[in-house]
Write a structure and sequence with these properties.
Helix content is about 20%, strand content about 25%. The protein is built from 3 helices and 7 strands, in the order βββαββααββ. The longest helix is centred in the middle third of the chain and has 16 residues.
Length: about 130
């Protein structure tokens, strides 16, 4: 069963805001990128194109998911760089260059944790029913 599992790379980051910019219960933002944006995202914040969304945790916090190879990169970045990237992303999609970003983040760098070395697994095409029973 273990041989048929595949590792995934996901970084879950909680963004803590002093003043939320969303209405309670409406704190979901899904990001959709054009092919051109994906192809030209080679700047230092290129990892932000691997963020698929931000989701309300409570009245002052959003949960941000970074997936794929970018999750490995984000796990090595200082908190200030992650905050700057998240702020850039929110400002871009909401069209508000004055929006105040998160004051801090909470995360665990699962991908670099020597006891876990990852965050997610999924069945491969070789998985069989017997692998789960």
């Amino acid at each position: 069963a273990i041989k048929n599992m595949r590792p995934g790379r996901v970084s879950k980051i909680i963004l803590h805001f002093s003043t939320p910019f969303w209405f309670p219960g409406e704190g979901t933002i899904n990001f959709i990128w054009t092919n051109q944006e994906l192809e030209t995202s080679d700047d230092e914040d290129g990892w932000i194109t691997s963020v698929n969304g931000m989701y309300e945790v409570n009245s002052t916090d959003l949960r941000m998911w970074v997936v794929g190879e970018a999750a490995s990169l984000v796990d090595t970045l200082p908190d200030d760089d992650v905050i700057a990237g998240a702020t850039k992303l929110i400002r871009k999609f909401l069209g508000n260059s004055e929006l105040v970003g998160p004051k801090r983040i909470t995360r665990h760098t699962w991908l670099t944790d020597p006891y876990s070395l990852g965050t997610w697994s999924y069945p491969s095409i070789h998985s069989q029913h017997q692998d789960y029973t």
